[in-house]
UniProtKB/TrEMBL annotation, chains A, B:
Signal peptide: none
Record region (Disordered): 1-39
Keywords recorded for this protein, A-Z: Lyase
GO MF assignments: D-glutamate cyclase activity
The keyword Lyase is assigned to this record: yes
Pfam families in the record: D-Glu_cyclase (PF07286)
Low complexity compositional bias, start-end: 1-13
One BP annotation, GO: glutamate metabolic process
Name this protein carries in UniProt: Uncharacterized protein
Keyword Lyase carried by entry: yes
Family matches, as SUPFAM superfamilies: PSTPO5379-like (SSF160920)
Superkingdom in the source lineage: Eukaryota
Length: 300, 300
């Protein structure tokens, strides 16, 4: 189901996929198998990374040392547990983050890595790969502040055009932590008018748990971040002008500049760069886990 | 008094400047007016930055978004208060961080900035500049893990040679926060044998509140960090070989490589880059505030 063709639920007279449980159930049943931007407005969305337990403490350190790209929300209650969470959010118990949960099925798409190489791309579940030694980690997602931007009259263009957000690799190093070395920041991009940037910064600033304010903006940021080609994102869809043209080849014709936020795909990049052994799983970029708690529960 | 020529205290038969209060009193009386590396072994040392209150919330955000260079330990209990602290360390009250305290006198040297320009370099106190609108912030310092390195048989060379640590500007951007934009990471450097780097990483890793493990290492890191000349640090003393030669011009002759940690001079760089208005004060790099609490109180 597309987020732009919502129907009403006969039981509650509420639109479907308006809550975390509805979105997760739709992913679990594979009736929703596309990106989650715009789903369940106001609800937190999360990046997922699932690691062998021997890498867990180093990953917690990686998050503590890089809280902007890797804001750690919660993790499996114990190794192997895919249905209950231990919270890292002060004052919010794991059961309030997501109650009826199956980390193996509740994202609309998954990536699977073996020995740090992607071996399965956007598969519907990871039931066959999950073992009793795996720990799932939830990391905040910038989709979580998109409804605040929309309410302020600044809807992200990718949502307006019903496309996936554009996601890029940068050359900005992460702070290393144990086995996690050599990785760089991943960023998501939303174009905005230059005159709106201070407003966009202010709106997203309180969302510290979901990447917070943008980390760079303007056309000169493309080079500073070491992005090769704005029209060829490494993940997600290519950015377009409102007329459907490639953004980078038309930027002289429009007032908008690229604005970059830290992105929760960063842990997947860290896994690939660090040469982890064994099976690592993650959501497919853009295909997030929708949670029960609200964006307003975590703004500072 | 040099840290290598400690005498004994007639009252206690303990070497002088072995505790936080002793070190602060010596700075206050100007009997110790040099860098604090090696003073009061095992005690936390802190970077100081003193801001007009209107910049305080953005600075807290800057620290939350950049905890490796800017691990926030404590701040003035209220604007204008230079003698009592509000703690940011879980489980440690402000009075346990430093009880008998005067933020205006207790660093052995201070820098004073006006409208983001350095106007006073390494002055003994800031009594004339401090106002009822100023808030002091304490940020963790990498001197705090140097005794752990020394105990493991890996004493930092600058301490062995009784010099100040070498501190460099890099091109790695900070995550911006409010008024704090355009700043880059500052790093301190200690040379170590290549074979010792994993041990050095492991020893410093638990010190999350005092910059934690090194962020880059090896000669290729010099270029990656955008450091112009390893022999010309922006702050502190130039690094030397054990024979007293410039390190960079002799690195082919020795087994040691530069190892870089995030540095608490970063907030001063952020102030200068962000164009803050008014009077900002800080410790002079290397001339730290020595605290009452112990390094072991904050290791994770």
């Amino acid at each position: 189901m597309s987020s732009t063709t919502l129907t009403t639920c006969s039981m509650s007279l509420q639109p479907q996929l308006q809550t975390g449980p509805q979105a997760r159930l739709a992913a679990r049943s594979e009736s929703h198998a596309k990106p989650t931007s715009g789903l369940a407005p106001g609800h937190l969305q999360a990046n997922l990374i699932v690691l062998p337990s021997r890498y867990a403490q180093d990953f917690r350190d990686l998050c503590a040392r890089n809280p902007v790209p890797c804001p750690l929300l919660a993790e499996s209650s114990e190794p192997g547990d895919f249905s209950s969470l231990k919270s890292h959010l002060p004052g919010i118990p794991g059961s309030a983050i997501a109650a009826d949960l199956d980390l193996r099925t509740d994202c609309p798409g998954y990536h699977v890595y073996r020995d740090s190489k992607l071996v399965l791309d956007t598969v519907p579940d990871i039931k066959d790969q999950w073992t009793s030694d795996h720990i799932g980690f939830l990391v905040g997602c910038s989709f979580s502040f998109e409804s605040a931007l929309s309410k302020a009259g600044l809807p992200p263009r990718h949502a307006v055009l019903d496309r996936n957000v554009s996601i890029y690799r940068t050359s900005i190093p992460l702070n290393p932590a144990g086995v996690f070395t050599g990785a760089t920041h991943i960023v998501s991009m939303r174009p905005y008018p230059k005159a709106a940037i201070e407003k966009v910064r202010a709106i997203t600033r309180p969302y510290l748990q979901t990447h917070g304010e943008c980390i760079a903006w303007g056309w000169d940021a493309v080079e500073k971040l070491g992005i090769n080609d704005i029209d060829v994102p490494e993940w997600g869809d290519a950015p377009l002008t409102m007329e459907g043209e490639p953004l980078g080849r038309n930027w002289g014709d429009e007032d908008n500049v690229p604005v970059f936020w830290a992105c929760g795909v960063t842990p997947q990049e860290a896994v690939m760069k660090s040469g982890l052994k064994g099976t690592v799983m993650a959501h497919a970029p853009g295909y997030m886990l929708v949670l029960d708690c609200l964006e307003t529960d975590v703004i500072c």
